[in-house]
Amino acid sequence: MPAGPAGRRGRPAVPAAAAAGGTQATGPLRALVRGGGVDTVLLAAVDWQGRLKGKEFEAGVLLERLASGRLTPEMCGYVFDTDLGMSAEGTGTLGSWGTGFADVALAADLSDARLLPWLPGTALVTCRPVAGGGQPLPVAPDTLLEDQLTLLAGHGLSVQVGVETEFVLYEGSVRDAAGRDFRGLRAATWDNRDYALDQPRAVAEFTRSLRRALAGAALPVEAVKLEGAPGQVEVTFPYGEPRLACLQHVLFKHAVRAVADGLGLAPTFMASPATGVGSGMHLHVSLYGADGPVLPGPGQGGAGLSELGGQAVAGLLEVLPVTVPLHAPYVNSYHRFRDHSFAPTRFNWGRDNRACAVRVVGHGGGLHLEVRLPGADANPYAALAAVLAGIRHGVENGLKVPRASDGDAYLDTGTARVPAHLAEAVGAFERSELAAGLLGDRQVAHLAGIARLELDHHNGVVTDAELRRGFAQA
Predict the structure, then answer these.
(1) From CA 298, how far away is CA 308, in angstroms rounded?
(2) Residues 65, 461: Cα–Cα separation, whole Å
(3) Of 467, 285, 250, nearest in space to 378 by CA
(4) Cα separation of 235 and 81, whole Å?
(5) Strand pairing report for 52-58 and 122-130
(6) Domain covering 152-458 in this structure, CATH number
(7) CA nearest 58: which of 71, 39, 44?
(8) Across the chain, how many H-helices and E-strands are there?
(9) The CATH number fitting domain 16-136, selected from 3.10.20.70, 3.30.230.10, 3.40.30.10, 3.40.50.720
(10) Which entry of 98, 202, 466, 471 is 20 to 30 Å from 164 by CA?
(11) 20 pLDDT band (50/70/90 cuts)?
(12) What is the pLDDT at residue 134?
């Protein structure tokens, strides 16, 4: 079995840019404050739910403290050990009474300070959580991804990633929706507007404002389109460096919520916000060697894949089934996996086949893999780390690509089905020696623990569906 991150030593320390201080270190942020009218700075890290978490600082005070070395950013470690509702059982590896809910240090990347146009007068400085000795925190999302990129680089491979994601817009603010207990909401469009260019005025104003806001943060989108479900929007980002692609997605979600709120709309990235509605986050992945793209070739499996490309697909088909909680992290996530829904229900692959978990798409040097398993609710760092682990598994073991699924891939009964529930997926994940070997024992245990917090929340809760079905009939 290939050695995972748990067996590696000597992981390089994260540069403590914030602690180092000095005018040179704070230069990019200082330039934004002076030239961009910035009075507020957010110091933030990404949690396991793919959200920005951190603190808000007055810009001048923060610059002075960083320059003098009198500020070392920290946050309570439980942020990286909680479920969607920020609950902590007190038994986790970071959020525990045994550790006293201690703080985790943050290494601020001052070179990447950027304006957030959707929050007037505000800039963002992203941070990486660090453990003792300045080492990256092993159970942080960006560390999980960084490990997989480093291991792939050991095979002479680099990665480019493009993310496309879907979400649903509803009329009224999130506060309004909460006041109605999120029931009876009206979607911002009322029918199937897939690819339609005659958008309702409110939606057109939203998409234009969103594109402008993201461009102002140096995060331009490639395309925006309406999707098939009422109120559903899809946004596609250009190909790029994988770490930036993941951060871009996190900032994108932050922007969507702020822009929508300003226009009296409520967005949701739930994988299935209504019965029959599914929102995905598709990962488009290309691999490169020293001489260029390595996925295209003479025709492995009849799809134009190279031998290495076939190995990558074969590895994904073995690893995706044991890492499903990284693509579908919540109980709600599994409502999306329905036959003939454009979400995969079987672990198969095909050439330009949107029914498959792995779609081989593109032409010539642009041939690449589209992994369609993740939902819109997935953490991009976690989902991409699992994808890269699968590719590496196939390459390291010289796996042979199985038969491609032609035609209706939902009827491909020779392939395994996607789990029907989070409990099934978590069980397979935490029992898997393959997942532990590729991602690390500690990482798997940590993520399985967070998923079980999600399960514990839902256990014993009586739902509206149960009442409607059983109140008068049981």
Answers:
(1) 11
(2) 47
(3) 250
(4) 30
(5) unpaired
(6) 3.30.590.10
(7) 39
(8) 13, 17
(9) 3.10.20.70
(10) 202
(11) very low
(12) 81
